[in-house]
Amino acid sequence: MTNMLQSRWWSWGFRSAVMLYFAVLIVLPILGIYGQSLSDGWSALLGNLTEPLAWKAVLLTFKLALIATAVNALIGTLAGWVLIRYRFPGRQLLNSMVDLPFALPTAVVGLMIMLLLGPRSAVGQWADSMGFTILFHEPAIVVAMVFVTFPFVIRAVQPLLEEMDASEEEAAYTMGASKARTFFRVILPSMMPGIVSGSMLAFSRALAEFGAVVLVAGNIPGRTLVASVYIFGQIESDNPAGAAAVSVLLLTFSFVILWLVSYVQARRTGR
Amino acid sequence: MYPDNRQQVKRWRTGRTGWLLGWLTLAVFVAGCGANGNAAAPGGASASASAAGSGGSVTLVIGAYSVAKDALQEILPAFRAEWKAKTGQDVKFQESYEASGTQARAIAGGFEADVAVLSMEGDIDKVKQAGLIRGDWKAGDDGGMVTRSIVVMGTRPGNPLGIREFDDLAKPGVKVLYPNPQTSGGAQWDINAIYGAGLKEAEEREGKKDEAAAKAFLASVHRNVESMDKSGRASMAAFEYGVGDVIVTYENELLARIAQGVKYDVVTPSRTILIENPAAVVDVNADKHGVREAADAFVAYLHGEKAQTIFAEHGFRPVKADVAAKYAADFPQPKELFDIGYLGGWDEVRQKLYSDRGVWYQVLAGQ
User: Which terminus of chain B faces fewer neighbouring Cβ atoms within 10 Å, N or C?
Assistant: First the structure.
């Protein structure tokens, strides 16, 4: 009996501690942002959102985040595949380097892109001779986004590949399927949930990226200003409601994406 | 997300590690909060305890804008020595350097600085509006200003594009850098300079201050802008990485970089704006910490000859006439220097240029 009580206390205490932690650290600030965006009323919120510079920034962010996500979905899937299916010297090292973009302060990433892709660098000069500029234009923003969201797809695809039953693949070959057919009908479908959920996480992270982008984007409103930097500008110029309005847009969108991710995952694991 | 995690969770559930870890995290978190709360106090507490008796020590918290850092770090020891000789007290400094607007918001939001050294009047006004500065800080020496500078242009060594005036920035193919006045309050000086130069020119041409012409002038320059960085420093970093042909920034910033061996040509346009940077005692904090005497003395010291000389050596134009005379050769005088008063004062500039649908917004939105 005492044992029972103890464990019930335990689980109650543990659960409420976690709930409290979650409420204080995550829910409150987010609700605060929604509250802030409405601090001047609905019409002000609408005004802040229909502001041309604001929606141009949001559209640009969406566009570039989509490109970055597409790149990562492709390269990430390939990289995950290579790291799981092939054995070669340095594989373990590569595998542990995948997560480095998470560990690196994003401002450092920005600085590095500036150094490596700037007009003085070999890449920058090559781009110049081809007639376009990387730094302070859209390509640099995409590169920054790709870099900081690199691990998501790989890390979501790897466990699926590891879990995959080799017999399914063998069965396909036994039944005479070609390599390509096996890949597209057997392997790819089982990787798909990982690609999708990894991509969605990458996309919402790319939407919010600030540290790296602020250094390498030109930040010119209407041209190269992304949403996160727009928000920063609004805060700095004492317009918290304007900042909150765009944040709310991003937050709502990210929430929908993350909810979709957990839905996809729940379906995959059958829970 | 990863199956690894699921296994870990299972392992944790059987052991008590997870449970312990959870509480440990919470405990650390709570302790951290407590420690943070205390951390703000010691400066004040120790200072007020010791300020009563002469001798002992006093702690001044300085909230300054980042550009002033190098100069201030030379001035602080000099003040310490003087104050020690005068009163026998040891002055300790807690220094914080941030972009001016960020610093102003931090002080207004509860960072307990005793002295604020910021890049523009408006930022001190932010602190005043938070009720932290009581009197009229502009009534002090030199109108509350401790340094001056002007807005100039920096080009690649040898000035290959032959940039002379702000007009040249509007020429096709010239790539211009200036920081974003929304994220860097100090950058408003740069925009004011270009806008004001347009206004002056229109005035000479048409005999009146034609604001539409000034706006068009600003827009024509803005079309050539390659990047608007977060701060003046970030713009200079970009320029030094090889981006752009011309950077619009403060004279003192360029002189400081040149002193560090970076190659710039400083182009002083004939029409540009006079920058004035204020410093003020944050009354409420200084009284709370019991350091008013030292704080007042420090701000007075900034206006004194020694500090002014140090400022001048770091590329700032001195406010004191005699020091300015000594360094006159280092600072060419633009033919038609105007100050913020020419644009109607800060209140009007904020209203007309930087308000919600102001001139700057219209330029950005291409209206």
Answer: C
Average pLDDT, integer, range A210-229: 91
Q: Which of B225, B234, B241 lies closest to A118 in CB terms?
A: B241
Please state the ipTM of this predicted complex: 0.74
Asked if B328 and B321 touch (Cβ cutoff 8 Å), the reply is: no
For residue B337, give both structure tokens. Answer: 């220097």
Q: Which of A102, A160, A236, A238 to mutate to test the interface with B (most CBs of B within 10 A)?
A: A236
Q: Which residue has the tokens 């650290």?
A: A25
Q: Which of B135, B136, B84, B94 is nearest to B114 (CA)?
A: B94
Contact A159/B3, CB-based, under 8 Å?
yes
Q: Please report where in the chains the tokens 């941030």 appear, as a residue.
A: B98
In one-letter notation, the amino acid at residue B353 is L
Please name the member of A156, A163, A229 whose beta carbon is closest to the beta carbon of B1: A156
At which residue do the structure tokens 């594009």 appear?
A: B161
Confidence of residue A177 (pLDDT cuts 50, 70, 90): confident
pLDDT at residue A186 tops 50: yes
Q: How far apart are CA B302 and CA A207, in angstroms?
A: 45
Chain A contact set for B243 (CB, 8 A) = 118-119, 135-136
B161 plus B296 within the same structural domain: no
Backbone φ and ψ for B60, nearest 5 degrees, come out as: -105, 130
- B281 close to A (CB below 8 A): no
pLDDT digits (tens, 9 = 90+) for B45-82: 333 334 444 568 899 999 999 889 999 999 999 999 99
B327 Cα to chain A: minimum distance (Å) = 36
Domain A43-269 has CATH 1.10.3720.10: yes
Contact state of B22 with A155 under an 8 Å Cβ cutoff: no
